Fold each of these.
Amino acid sequence: MQLGSLFRRSLSVAQSVLSALRGWLAALCWGLVPLALLRPLSVWRRVSGPGSAALSVSRREREREEAPPTPTSVNYHFTRQCNYKCGFCFHTAKTSFVLPLEEAKRGLTMLKEAGMEKINFSGGEPFIQDRGEFVGKLVKFCKQELKLPSVSIVSNGSLISERWFQKYGEYLDILAISCDSFDEDVNALIGRGQGKKSHVEKLHKLRQWCQDYAVAFKINSVINRFNIEEDMNDQIKALNPVRWKVFQCLLIKGENTGEKALRQAEKFVISDEDFERFLDRHKDVSCLVPESNQKMRDSYLILDEYMRFLNCTNGWKEPSKSILDVGVVEAIKFSGFDEKMFLKRGGKYVWSKADMKLDW
């Protein structure tokens, strides 16, 4: 009996000690828990229940939407000057300003660091500045120093010489030549021409130089009231560009429409149905890449001569601050760029001539 009584007393003492230890450990643990985690059980149930994964995904999607877009492909209109007078032009010659070469290089370096993979030099007419030397030096810098996968130019072609190809052709991936008609009378009506010089003849010469100097050849055409009935199938197939970009004539306030515009392009405008009819007539051209106004308006990152992104979402060009002053990330927030539409319209494609595997 004494042994039993002793055992019971020892067990009681042990239980008391264990209870005290348990309380001390609990106090210690709670002391280590952040106050933010001390919430009612009902709250934990709401956060850690079946919907928590959806909340986490939703938060991640919201963060992605709020993050500025990546400048994967940039169109740098470094000059507004041009030797043609296309009636529907939507980047008209309001100023003769061109950044100094080193400042342009600084901005291009900033864009590369922000994620740029492709640069497209445009205008105006890019070959009008220093007879093509300015754009040539930029092309060489972007390929040789920045090592961009793709460097391209959009030009009317009239000022390009074979000597330019000899000097800079190896650094250029794509040359896009604007050609809206294979009828010289229609080109004259549009304003794409210089007196008696043949735009179409120069187009064929440029196609040959591109082949001779290993540059991918591309054609851009703006479909408008003067060329809407034209059949270009045979000519495009004979030239065989890597891409034939076909645009619908687009109105931009302050550029080619409105009181302060240098052009009045209303007479060039066609309907969506007209545009579709033209596309249907050329549906068998394998290199055809159509771009309606809906696809085009907000799916291009356009950088003007001051290196400001141009927001066209409201029908006119609203410039951001220059990337040279505020940086790429801050400036691009005001670009109005629709990255989803850019991808949907096929804005990212095989754009390095090294990957095209063309038969030069």
Note: Confidence is low (pLDDT under 50) at residues 23-48.
Amino acid sequence: MPFYNSEEERRHGREQLLQRQKHLIELCYKVAQKYLFEGKHEESVPAALHSLRFRTNVYGLNSVQLVPAYLLLSEASIGLGHVVQAEEYLSQAQWTVLKSTDCNNEIQSLMHRNLGLLYTAKEEYEEARYHLANDIYFASCVYGSEDIRTSGGYFLMGNVFIHQNKMDIADSLYTKVTEIWHTYLDQHVQNQLSARKQPADILAKELENDTGLDEAQEAEAVHILETILEIRENTGKEKPASILFILKTVAILHYLMMNISKAHELAVKAYLLSKELPNKEDVTEALRDLLGLIASKDPVTLKAAKFFAGQGQ
């Protein structure tokens, strides 16, 4: 803090410092989250530690606001195989929550999700399921049961059932996750398709790609959906409709993230699969529309889009 000549200047300076610290808390938290979803556990640790340090400076050592940083450090430790270290961070988080009178459902959800990850890593699957069920409950209280922020709990629960060789239950949970993300992402595509019918001066603005997600949420979406796609392709050959659904969802995600070549590759793959399945005319038409949007962002794919549009005539 610099030297100020008056109490008013000092008060204003303290307020500005506090705002900068809160901004850094959020920035470090999102960076650490992004690295975790990308599987870069070691790289996430410095950002999580900075988030913890700034939280301590702003809120104090006993504040429940420290819990999200402890949970990030726990998750990074699990990813690095440091289970004992993860348990220490989780114990600190639990102790902080027990001492707090203002712990909200969002933090409860995060804590149970991390406990679910810990017990999954320890292969204690019944305990993992218990905590992930609590995660889903608390997340549903905050966001609703059909929200993308709740879907992570369903996904992790599905992973536990995979470990227990309960494939039918895991399949239903992965379907739930895909439906939630498809509903969210497809709405952005439908908005763009509607915007294409608008006057030219409105069109340019309306067709700007935007997932509505921050970088950490986009990394989470890629991790969850591509993991489900890999599992579907490896284990679900007898359920091509499920493969088609997740292919389309991942294609939309990459399109909205402007990963155009990846989006085109997945959309073409989904389109060709849809032509092989009975009663999939609506999906085929939707994929032609998606290929058209992809072509509008990349002239290289325009020829392919015209080819598939011609096939639908």
Note: The two ends are 69 Å apart (CA to CA).
Amino acid sequence: MAIITDEPEQEPQQQNQRHQEEQPKQKQISQTKEPKQHTNPFLFWCYLVLFVSLITLLFISFTPQDNNPRSWFLSLDSALRHHYSNGRIIKVQTSPKRSPIELFTFQKGVDSTESVFIIHGLGLSSFAFREMINSLRSKKVNVIAVDLPGNGFSDRSTMEFEERSDGAFQRFKDVYGLIQEKGFFWAFDQIVETGQIPYEEIMKARVLERKSVKIIELGSNEVGRVLGQVIDTFNLAPVHLVLHDSALSMSANWVAENPGLVKSLTLLDTGIKPALPLFALNLLLIRDFVLGSSFGYQWLIRFCCMKKVGSFDVEGNRVLLKGRDRCRAVSEMGRKLNNSFDMAEWGSSEGIKGIPMQILWSSVWSKEWSEEGSQVADALPQAKFVGHSGGRWPQVDSADELAKHIADFVSSLPKTVRQVEEEPIPEHIQKMFDEASSSGHNHDHHHSHSGHDNHEGHAHAAGYMDAYGLGHTWGQ
């Protein structure tokens, strides 16, 4: 049985009062919703354009450029190609576990027993010293400069052998790589032909060492090995060594350990910190601004390295620093610099005491730099201190002045006596000579076995021009 109850009817006054109370609430709700319906579309598009621009910038920055050596070389201007065509490539090895790398050398030879070996600082190459090299040659001094590994025209990467794990995942990866190389049905064909699984091929692919290409990270030990091999290749010992900027901290240990190979030392504005700031190469946006245009690079050089950039080939040096990941190699080299290098302790070591030394220092760059030069002079009291009118990269704007100081210093030392060792004539060639003499055939044979090491100009080791695919006559 249903119970029906009648609700009491509401009075008209109560209904009117409730309706009046609900109206302000509805107005408040409509007022709060109204701004959301009229959003500004300009902010949305502004954020969208900013986000897309940032993603594009990051993509361009991290995308490797100029990876093709041939296209990179062909894009260089005539001055760089001419400098390369007048150089020579030699093979050096920076570590036993690394494959040999190609090192670019630039030599201006004259008939002199005195040889000057120039080592550039961070962010430079032999291309920046060509005016100074020509000036030294005019003063009858044999000069050679190199592009340290990772710089200029030298290799910026090396092949390394790494040990790897022997886990199940690595085995699967090896087999998968072999299938990618040989083809999907390769193993099946081998089973049909031989009746067994090709274990030997699989095990050959599964070596416990693998090859990998890595950017060269040059430390003081590697620089020392490079210097020693260059001196041996060109028979320079004892050599007059010129160290510019950060080259001192990179090669100081090698000089102290090999005093017999060094006849004199010239320190050219060799401060503890390099003139080129590392943050310009490490920070993404700053690096893109500096190396992305001649204006940015020229602004950095004028601010940190040299005030007179008129005769400095800004574009050529910028291209060499930027091209083919060389900026990364230079940055790694800067990270490995010995920032705790003690000049006084190094100068008082047994290996350095007996080496004649001079310091060429800028006297016009800044007051702080002049004070640092005074500190270096105090730390090396045995060295001759000479001021010059250039900046921290003075090899361009003060090339003749520096060449004069170096040539005068070299000529003030006792002359080097070099013993030229003639290569013995091979036994089978000597036998032919003896037979010809005994048979009465008098022929004039002219054999020249010396002179292969001192080539000026178009002397190239086999293979480097071929790395660019241009042949050995390019630029000649």
Note: Residues 256 and 351 are 5 Å apart (CA to CA).
